[in-house]
Amino acid sequence: MRSDIGSAKTELPEIAFAGRSNVGKSSMINVLINRKSLARTSSQPGKTQTINFYNVNKEMYFVDLPGYGYAKTSKDNQEKWAVMIEKYLRRSKSLRAVFVLVDIRHEAKASDKMMYDWVVQSGYRPVIIATKADKISKGAVPKQLKILREGLGLEKGTVIIPFSAETKNGRSEIWNEIEKCLSGQADITEEETSL
Ligand code: GTP
Ligand code: MG
After folding, report:
1. Residue range 91-130, pLDDT digits in tens
2. Ligand 1 mutation target, pool 17, 22, 111, most atoms within 8 A of CB
3. Which tens digits make up the pLDDT trace of 28-52?
4. CB of 42 closer than 6 angstroms to any ligand 1 atom
């Protein structure tokens, strides 16, 4: 569903958000765009089941991808999910970046690692968002980020940002990364560091 029926033909850049069910993708989108509930959220995993596009200031689309890793999902649904995401990653010409969200409290699950690898193999350099940072103490953040970095096997230089939809901590850092992706700076940095 596109939230701005009528201008779906425009080729605005797209920024997609991927992550396990219940990790906080829709909540983060609402915080980023300062809307209470444009993107539907729920304490029940599996809320977002289709790819949702949110037009942000007529400048870009935020793409809320359906969550993965929900244990109660049938094999059939998992397959549908994989086909839908793969088609999207392969076909979207306007997709500029994929952000992968993981829960800051836990180590990376196999499905997180698979998603990260999939995004990298699709040619993107994902930014990682460690969600629900309000649920751990400030002091525990660096250690959790290290655990996630190692568990995901992040490539050197990959940005990982702790974020909380409750306190909104991390919001401006995420926006910075989005701006970089849109201005193409991310590519320039990559070239510079590989010299
Ligand atoms: P699916 O659509 O099922 O893939 O889930 P989602 O990733 O979009 O998660 P959603 O934003 O719906 O959030 C799931 C639950 O986690 C909700 O109950 C949210 O209120 C809660 N939640 C999300 N972000 C945070 C956060 O930063 N801190 C806390 N404490 N709770 C959060
Ligand atoms: Mg959702």
Report:
1. 888 999 999 999 999 999 999 999 999 999 999 999 999 9
2. 22
3. 999 999 886 776 766 666 666 788 8
4. yes
